[in-house]
Amino acid sequence: MQLTLQQLLLILPGARKAPNAIIDALNAAMVRYRIDSPVRAAAFLAQVGHESGQLRYLREIWGPTPAQARYEGRQDLGNTQPGDGKRFMGRGLIQVTGRANYQKAGAALGLPLEDQPELLEQPVHAAMSAAWFWQTHGLNELADAGQFQTITRRINGGLNGQAERVALWETAKRVLA
Known about the structure:
Helix content is 54%, strand content 0%. It is mainly alpha-helical. 45% of the residues are buried.
C-alpha cells in the first residue's frame, strides 16, 4: 500500500512541519519491511508518530534529563565508552538508542552508524531504521493480531504516551480503512 500525503496529514496533523522527504521515505521503508496492510500501517504510523513528535523530531531532544543521563555506561545499550550516552541518543522515527542498537541497525541497513550516528537524522534512514526495528521485533505480527499494547512495550519498554499512541492508532485505522 502507498501512503498519500493527505492520509499522512489526517493521521499526523503535526507532520506538516516534518521534512518534505518523509512521505517518500516512509513509503519506501514500509514496502521494504512489509508494513503492507492497513492494519500494519496504522499501528506503525501511530507508534512512529508518537515517538517522533508527529515526524518532527528525528533525534531525541537532549537535556540531558535524568533518564537520558542514565544512558551513560548502560551495558544493556552497549554504552561502554565515556560519552556514549549522548553520542548514541535516540534517533530515527522509533528512536534507536545505544551503541549496541546503532551497531545492529547499521549492519542491517548497510550504514556506518557507529561512526556516523547522525545519519539516522536523515529522513530516509530515520524511516528505514524504524521499519527495520518494527520487522525485527515481530511488530507486523503483533499488529496483525491487534496487540497494540504489546507493540508499545516492545518499542518503549513501558507504556509511556499510550493514550496518545492509541488515539493516533484509532485515527490511522479510520483513515486507512
